[in-house]
Specification:
The radius of gyration is 22 Å and the shape is globular. Helix 2 runs antiparallel to helix 3, helix 10 packs across helix 11 and helix 15 crosses helix 16. The N and C termini lie far apart (49 Å). It is built from 17 helices and eight strands. The model has no long low-confidence stretch (mean pLDDT 96). Bound molecules: nicotinamide-adenine-dinucleotide (NAD).
């Protein structure tokens, strides 16, 4: 099987590594030489480290490197069974690439995009054979994060969708089906983790460190919301929130925060610039002992919003309950699925929390998903 990947950035390089681990013929194409060279040397460093740690043997390391060829020439996609695109997030540029590709690959070649925020339908719209186009949305870093959201456009054939799902299983990933709606599953359901944390900060209820501590100590999350936003980059994280907000016709639930917008505008992007919510030139180990009750309150507010979002996602049939659970655990490392959490905390307690927030603020943001209310009665 021949797989061509477009874009030798972080995602394309990671996906190339996954495909070459399966001993497939892989071509990695980028419009510039520099990312291709960087990708090749990064891969060499990665496989050497995996061998040192005894995670893979030397033979597999050699195979992974040998199976990938690097090119700037789109014609090298000829004869591919699958083309996966992970280039810049721009509809026009993606459409131009796929239009050109249709003149190079056969009409049976499966075409896929790794887009995070564009609709699959809009990219597919320029194709002559639209039924073979789907979304395969990997998570960063792709070789380590098991989840792949498999997204069909309204024009995708059921065979193409099944093929994508089974292929991801063969590649030892965890595929889930998601509807072609903004943010798919993960980037929609995860919004309150950041948004409600920012809201709590903006209201002056607690500082960044306390909110992070609440989610880590009470919730068992590996990183708190502010640590995670600094890790992802405030520019990128803000952009995702803004895109989801606009794409859902300005639904108050996804309203971005000025605090994050200003950080992004100021270039305080997080770890990559040395400062975001935290200043990474300073010692971060300073001890604080926030009141336990406050930590519980913060956790309950954020987790209730997350659970509500998961129920809303199920309500709109964006994915099944099982796939929503898998998505949050395998795509963003949540310690538990949100429906499992609701059960543990008690659906009634979640509803009580949301009703309190709604009655206090009278904002659409806190409206309860009809499905959550139904679950209380069940
Ligand atoms: N970074 C993430 O966390 C993440 C996660 C999931 C999905 N995605 C999506 O994956 C895609 C790539 O993201 P990334 O973070 O790897 O980007 P990146 O900026 O690291 O890499 C993009 C690469 O594409 C190349 N490129 C641009 N236009 C091209 C063209 N016409 N032909 C060939 N190469 C071209 C660029 O030279 C660059 O090397 C985007 O659609 C993004 O939304 C990103």
């Amino acid at each position: 099987m021949k797989v061509t990947i477009f874009g030798a950035g972080s995602m394309g390089s990671g996906i190339a590594q996954i495909a070459s681990t399966q001993n497939l013929e892989v071509v990695l194409i980028d419009r510039s030489q520099q990312p291709l060279e960087k990708s090749r040397s990064n891969l060499n460093r990665i496989v050497n480290r995996l061998v040192e740690k005894n995670k893979i043997d030397q033979a597999l390391a050699d195979q992974i490197e040998k199976q990938i060829s690097y090119s700037q020439n789109i014609e090298q996609a000829k004869g591919s069974d699958l083309v996966l695109e992970a280039i810049v997030e721009d509809l026009n540029i993606k459409q131009t690439l796929f239009k050109e590709l249709e003149g190079i690959v056969s009409k049976d070649c499966i075409l896929a995009s790794n887009t995070s925020s564009l609709s699959i339908a809009s990219i597919a719209s320029v194709l002559q054979y639209k039924e073979r186009f789907l979304g395969l949305h990997f998570f960063n870093p792709a070789p380590l994060m098991p989840l792949v959201e498999v997204i069909g456009a309204v024009t995708t054939s059921p065979e193409c969708l099944n093929y994508g799902f089974e292929l991801m299983q063969n590649w030892k990933k965890v595929p889930v089906y998601a509807k072609d709606t903004p943010g798919f599953i993960v980037n929609k359901v995860a919004r309150p983790f950041y948004g409600e944390a920012l809201r709590i900060y903006d209201e002056g209820i607690a500082d960044f460190k306390t909110i992070d501590m609440a989610m880590k100590t009470v919730g068992g999350f590996r990183m708190g919301p502010f640590e995670l936003m600094d890790f992802i980059g405030n520019d990128i994280n803000y952009k995702v929130t803004e895109t989801v907000f606009k794409a859902f016709y300005n639904d108050a639930r996804y309203k971005p925060s000025f605090t994050q917008k200003r950080l992004a505008e100021a270039g305080l992007l997080g770890r990559k610039t040395g400062r975001g919510y935290y200043d990474y030139s300073l010692d971060q180990t300073e001890e604080t002992t926030p009141d336990k009750q406050l930590l519980e309150t913060i956790f309950m507010r954020i987790i209730s919003m997350l659970v509500n979002e998961a129920y809303d996602t199920l309500f709109w049939n964006i994915a099944t309950k099982e796939h929503i659970e898998l998505a949050m655990r395998k795509g963003v490392n949540y310690p538990k699925g949100l429906f499992a959490w609701a059960k543990e905390i008690g659906v009634q307690n979640i509803v009580d929390q949301l009703e309190q927030l709604y009655s206090k603020y009278q904002e659409e943001r806190y409206r309860i998903s009809p499905l959550l209310k139904e679950d209380v009665k069940a």
